[in-house]
Amino acid sequence: MTENAGERLVDGYTLVVFDLDGVIYLIDRPIPGAVEAVARLHAEGRAVAYATNNASRRSSEVADLLTGMGVPARPEEVLTSAAATAELLRDRLPAGAPVLVVGAEALRAELRAVGLRPVATADEEPAAVAQGYGPQVGWVDLAEASLAVRAGAPWYATNTDRTLPSPRGPLPGNGSLVAVLRTALGRDPDVVVGKPEPALFATAARRAGEGRTLVVGDRLDTDIEGARRAGLDSLLVLTGVSGVPELLAAPEERRPAYVSVDLAGLFDPAAVVRVPGAPDGGGWSVNVADGGLVLDGAGRPLDALAALCAVAWSTGVGPRVRPASPAAAEALAALGRAD
Fold first, then answer.
1. What pTM was computed for the model?
2. Which residues of 144-167 are buried (b: 16+ CB within 10 A; e: fewer)?
3. pLDDT, tens digit, for every residue of 63-75?
4. Is 339 designated active site?
5. Is 19 one of the catalytic residues?
6. Active-site entry in 11, 19, 141, 280
7. Cα–Cα distance between 7 and 3 in angstroms, integer?
8. Which of 79, 212, 262, 304 has the maximal Cβ count within 10 Å?
């Protein structure tokens, strides 16, 4: 539950910032309940924003995609790592400077929009390399980027997400492509722009003025860590990449304030829990045995998760969990831990 039983989580915040992939949609399909949740926020006159590490679409394209799914959105509500990368390079390079792009057309378009010149080869002596996710990125693109960086061009990555969610399961993300260059060059990018760096969330939070901002995400390593770096509360939803095992093993910098199965947790106090909870709260008890966690008792599955987080985070034991009662087995199954 939230701090005050019966109080809706959303009522404590002026602005709700959503990640997109894994929270609002999977690739091009809305996640069940997402359209209704955002519509409810709009109906209540609440401010919303969207922050995504996906650099394969421009802000206007993302807004059009959302609107087509039944989630009315304006380009100015959408913050992408492609646009943020372009703005950063604009501030650091002279107008018209060549930038070698590894990624989708959206990244090239954002660079053109700020007065820079996208190029495709190292022979064009780029002033920087900008690398973002693109489904058509191939060996030739990576080879040209490698040559440009070796020649002295600073290397900017829009983000380093290892995977991106899809209806068929996690797929390689920009971080996997960055890893190819990291292996070839023997070093990391000079600058990583997207989450977990706090810039996207900090930009969104400034729009809330003096009000509080809640970040809603599905990834501990980007959304939740990025929110914490920006000093913001976060809600982890279990509709995307990170699940219970990752949550129980999360280091402090990747621990959310709240967890819910889906976006219903914004409005229904029974569908969200603050973590960590008490190790013996909500009708549950958690003990450590044989190098794992043992869950016993009966109650709400989310309260079981809060109790598991309390013990796992305080002891460093986990994420292996064993049920000690039929109710515990049912709770773990409901949380996606049927082991």
1. 0.84
2. bbbbbbeeebbbbbbbbbbbbbee
3. 999 999 999 999 9
4. no
5. yes
6. 19
7. 8
8. 304
